[in-house]
Design goal:
The chain has 16 helices and 36 strands. The chain has an eight-stranded antiparallel β-sheet with strand order 17-16-22-13-14-21-18-19. Helix 6 (226-246) crosses helix 8 and helix 12 (570-586) packs across helix 13 (613-630). The longest helix has 21 residues, at 226-246.
C-alpha cells in the first residue's frame, strides 16, 4: 500500500485538552457512513496506545502539540485517576481526519481490571489496532482478546510501537506477534535505520522508503536502494504470498509461481479486501516520539479497515422483547444507538458517549432512552422519553458542538436524565432495545461506609452517578450483614471507583468485608422462656418451653406445636413462633441468622390479664437463647461452585493454589484450544481476594465465575476467626 497517496490535513490551531466544551464546531461532521472509521486501540498497559493517539492527533493537526502521560496532559487521559496511575482507566474517543475520512480512535485501557471499558470500546468499533511494544512480551490476556476478536471476525492490524527506544527490537517483536497471533500476521513495512535510530519505513509493496524528518510531520519518499531491496526480499515474498493466498482470484498463485510480476495495484486491492474481512493482519512499525509510521497507520485505517456500513450491526428488539428486524447503517433508517460510556461533569451534568448504529440524530430530537438486563448489577430496567438539547463531537474530555450525527458515527449527549452505559437511544415513535454486549462479572468485594451519618445521603447519590457509568460495578446492600458492598473488577478498579466518589465530595471509608455466615444447632436442646414483668397496672406474662433439634442442610425452619390442654391459646402459639423467628434472624451465638432447625413448642403458661402477643414473642426469643446456651452452636459458611478458565500452562499452578483455599476439586474439562476449565467448590471466605490472586498466577489471563451452592460447617480451626468480633 503506497503511502504517497495519504493526505494528512494541514495543521490547525490546537485546542486545549482540558476544555469541557469548545465554543464552536470545527467543521461539519460526515454525512455518510462511508466517510467514517471506528477503530479501537487495544493492548497491554504501557504498550503505547495513548501516545500513539496523541501523535496521530498532532500529526493531523487536531492538537498543536503532543501531551505527556507523566505530566497528565494527554487528550485521552484527563480523569484524575488516570493521571494519578499514569495509565488509561476509561474509554476515550478521539477523532482525527485523514484523506477526507473521520477516524474515531477509541483509546481503551490496557489493564485487565478495566475490561468493561475495553469491551465498550470494541462494541463501538468496527476494527481494532493491536498495539504491541517493541520492548515487552505479549500478555496472555492480549492473546485471548485477539482470539475473541477473531471469533467475531473483527478486522485487525498490529502496530509495533516504541521503535525509538534504544532496546527496541522489531524482529523479536514481530516473532512474538506471530507466535501469539498466528501466521496471518505479516509486516507491510520494515523499519529503516540511520545508525542506531529508526528514521523511516520501507514499503514492501510500494518499493519506496518513507523517511521521517524532525521538522516536518509528513514523511519524504525515495526509492529503495539495491542493498535495502536485497535485505527485504524474503519479507516481500512472504507478504505477496500471504496476500495471494487470501485472494479470491484462484489463478493468482499459479501466475506468481510461474514468475509473473503481479501488478502492485492488484496486490493492494486484494490486501485491502483481506484486511476488511478480518482474515489478514498487516504489521505496522511506529514511533509516536519521532512520527515514524503514523502516515502508514492512517493509510491502513482509512483504506483497508471497513466503514460502519460494511459491518454487521447488533440485534435489536422492541420494548416487549419481540425481534425488530435487522438494522442497516443508514442515515435515513430508524434511530438506534447505544450509550457506550457515561460520565458526570460538574457543569454539564451527565455526559453520554453514543455509538449511532442507524438513523440520524439532531439537536432538539425527541428520543426514547431504554435500559434492560442489568438489574442484577443494581441497574433497574427503565424507560424514558427525553429530548436531545445538546449534541457534540467528543475529543477526549472536550466537547465540540455539531448539528447532527449520522449512522456509524460517535457523538456525545448531555443532560439526559436517566441514561446509563449500555442504554439504547432510539426514536420516540419507534422505541428499540439494542442487544447488550457481554459484561465481565465483578468479583472483588469492597465494603464501604459513610464516614459520618451526614455523609450517608451524599454517598447514596454519588454511588448512583458512578454506577450509571460503570456496568462492571455492582452495588449491593447485603441483607444479612447489612454492609454496603461494591463489587469491583480488582484493586485498581476499586481505587478508581473510590476516587470518583471522593472527587464528588463523599467522605467514606473502607471496612473489612464480613462473610454472611449462618448458625445452626449441632445437637438437640431444650429452652425455657419466661417473660414476666409487673410494675403497676397492666403487666406482661408469658412462659413457654421449647425443644430444638437440627435438620438437614437446606431444610430451613420448622415450627411444631405439641402443647395439649390449651395451656397456650392459639394466637399466642403464633406469637411464640414469631419470637423464635425474630431471634433466629438476630442469631444466638455470633450474631448470624439461625437456619436448619425444628422448634417444637411443648408447654407453657398464660395469665388471664397480663399475657399478650408481645410477651409471648419475647418468651419465644428467650427460650431459643436458653436452648442455644445449653447446646453447641455450629457456624455455617457459604460455599460457591467455581469454574476457572485458564490456559493449559497455568493449570498446575492454579490447582495447587486451590488446595490452600480449602477448595474441593470437582473436575477439569477442555474448553477448546489451549484453555482448561477447572471446577471446584470453594468457601466464600476464600474467594474475597481470589480475583487478584488468580490474575497474578496466570499473568492476567485467568477468569473465574461463581454461584452459590450451599452453606457448610466452618472448620473448628477457622470458626473463631470467621465469627463476628
Amino acid at each position: 500500500m503506497p503511502t504517497k497517496d495519504v493526505k494528512v490535513p494541514a495543521k490547525n490551531p490546537g485546542r486545549s485538552a482540558d476544555l469541557r466544551r469548545a465554543d464552536a464546531s470545527e467543521g461539519l461532521p460526515p454525512d455518510r457512513p462511508e466517510q467514517i472509521r471506528n477503530v479501537a486501540l487495544v493492548g497491554r498497559s504501557g504498550s503505547g496506545k495513548t501516545m500513539l493517539t496523541e501523535a496521530l492527533l498532532a500529526a493531523t493537526g487536531a492538537i498543536s502539540r503532543k501531551g505527556s502521560i507523566a505530566d497528565g496532559t494527554t487528550v485521552s487521559d484527563s480523569e484524575p485517576a488516570a493521571i494519578h496511575q499514569q495509565r488509561s482507566v476509561a474509554l476515550s474517543v478521539v477523532p482525527v481526519g485523514a484523506g477526507g475520512v473521520k477516524v474515531n480512535l477509541l483509546d481503551t485501557p490496557g489493564y485487565v481490571e478495566f475490561l468493561g471499558e475495553l469491551r465498550a470500546g470494541l462494541r463501538a468499533a468496527d476494527a481494532a489496532l493491536f498495539v504491541v511494544s517493541a520492548l515487552d512480551d505479549i500478555e496472555a490476556a492480549t492473546t485471548a482478546l485477539w482470539a475473541e476478536c477473531q471469533r467475531a471476525r473483527m478486522p485487525r492490524a498490529v502496530v509495533i510501537s516504541r521503535l525509538d527506544h534504544p532496546r527496541a527490537d522489531f524482529d523479536a517483536a514481530l516473532a512474538r506477534c506471530r507466535r501469539a497471533f498466528g501466521d496471518s500476521v505479516v509486516p507491510l513495512y520494515l523499519p529503516v535505520r540511520t545508525g542506531a535510530a529508526v528514521t523511516g519505513l520501507l514499503g514492501l509493496l510500494s518499493g519506496t522508503v518513507s523517511e521521517q524528518r524532525p521538522d516536518n510531520p509528513m514523511p519524504a519518499f525515495r526509492n529503495v536502494d539495491d542493498a535495502e531491496r536485497a535485505a527485504a526480499e524474503a519479507a516481500r515474498s512472504a507478504l505477496i504470498e500471504g496476500i495471494i493466498a487470501e485472494s479470491e482470484d484462484e489463478t493468482l498463485m499459479d501466475r506468481y509461481l510461474g514468475g509473473e510480476d503481479i501488478p502492485p495495484e492488484t496486490l493492494v486491492s486484494d490486501l485491502e479486501t483481506a484486511v476488511a474481512r478480518g482474515s489478514f493482519h498487516p504489521v505496522l512499525p511506529t514511533s509516536a516520539e519521532t512520527g515514524v509510521g503514523l502516515a502508514e497507520v492512517l493509510e491502513v485505517v482509512t483504506r483497508a479497515f471497513p466503514s460502519p456500513a460494511e459491518r454487521e450491526l447488533p440485534a435489536v428488539t422492541e420494548l416487549a422483547g419481540a425481534p425488530a428486524g435487522p438494522l442497516a447503517c443508514d442515515p435515513a433508517g430508524p434511530l438506534a444507538g447505544e450509550v457506550v460510556r457515561t460520565t458526570t461533569d460538574a457543569f454539564l451534568g451527565r455526559v453520554c458517549l453514543v455509538r449511532l448504529f442507524s438513523g440520524t440524530l439532531r439537536e432538539d430530537s425527541a428520543v426514547h432512552v431504554g435500559g434492560r438486563g442489568l438489574a442484577d448489577r443494581g441497574h433497574e430496567d427503565h424507560d424514558s422519553d427525553e429530548r436531545v438539547t445538546h449534541l457534540y463531537s467528543p475529543l477526549g474530555s472536550s466537547l465540540r458542538p455539531v448539528p447532527y450525527c449520522v449512522a456509524g458515527d460517535i457523538c456525545a449527549l448531555t443532560k439526559l436524565g436517566v441514561a446509563e452505559t449500555g442504554d439504547t437511544i432510539s426514536g420516540k415513535e419507534m422505541p428499540l432495545l439494542v442487544q447488550p454486549w457481554e459484561m465481565p462479572a465483578p468479583l472483588l468485594p469492597v465494603a464501604v461506609e459513610a464516614a459520618s451519618h451526614g455523609d450517608e445521603d451524599a454517598l447514596a447519590k454519588s454511588l448512583g452517578k458512578v454506577a450509571a457509568g460503570d456496568p462492571t460495578l455492582r452495588v449491593e446492600r447485603n441483607s444479612e450483614t447489612h454492609q454496603l458492598i461494591l463489587w469491583c473488577m480488582g484493586e485498581a478498579h476499586a481505587e478508581v471507583v473510590l476516587g470518583r466518589l471522593r472527587d464528588q465530595g463523599v467522605n467514606l471509608q473502607t471496612v473489612e468485608v464480613v462473610t454472611p455466615l449462618r448458625e445452626t444447632f449441632a445437637a438437640p436442646a431444650a429452652g425455657h422462656g419466661r417473660y414476666v414483668k409487673q410494675s403497676g397496672g397492666h403487666g406482661q406474662y408469658a412462659v413457654c418451653d421449647i425443644e430444638v433439634e437440627p435438620l438437614e442442610r437446606g431444610a430451613g425452619f420448622e415450627f411444631v406445636d405439641k402443647t395439649v390442654g390449651g395451656v397456650i391459646p392459639g394466637p399466642f402459639i403464633t406469637s411464640v413462633e414469631k419470637g423464635v423467628r425474630t431471634q433466629m434472624q438476630k442469631g444466638v451465638s455470633a450474631g448470624f441468622p439461625v437456619v436448619d432447625i425444628r422448634v417444637t413448642l411443648v408447654s407453657g403458661k398464660t395469665h388471664s390479664v397480663d399475657s399478650s402477643d408481645a410477651a409471648f414473642q419475647a418468651a419465644g426469643a428467650l427460650a431459643l437463647r436458653e436452648a442455644a446456651a445449653a447446646a453447641r452452636i455450629q457456624l455455617l459458611e457459604p460455599v460457591s461452585a467455581v469454574t476457572i478458565s485458564v490456559s493449559d500452562e497455568h493449570v498446575g499452578a492454579v490447582m495447587s493454589d486451590l488446595s490452600s483455599h480449602r477448595a474441593r476439586l470437582t473436575g477439569t474439562t477442555s474448553a477448546g484450544g489451549d484453555v482448561t476449565e477447572i471446577g471446584a467448590e470453594v468457601p466464600d471466605q476464600e474467594l474475597l481476594r481470589y480475583s487478584i490472586e488468580l490474575r497474578a498466577l496466570t499473568s492476567g489471563s485467568g477468569r473465574f465465575s461463581r454461584s452459590y451452592l450451599r452453606h457448610e460447617p466452618v472448620p473448628a480451626t477457622t470458626a473463631r476467626a470467621a465469627a463476628k468480633a
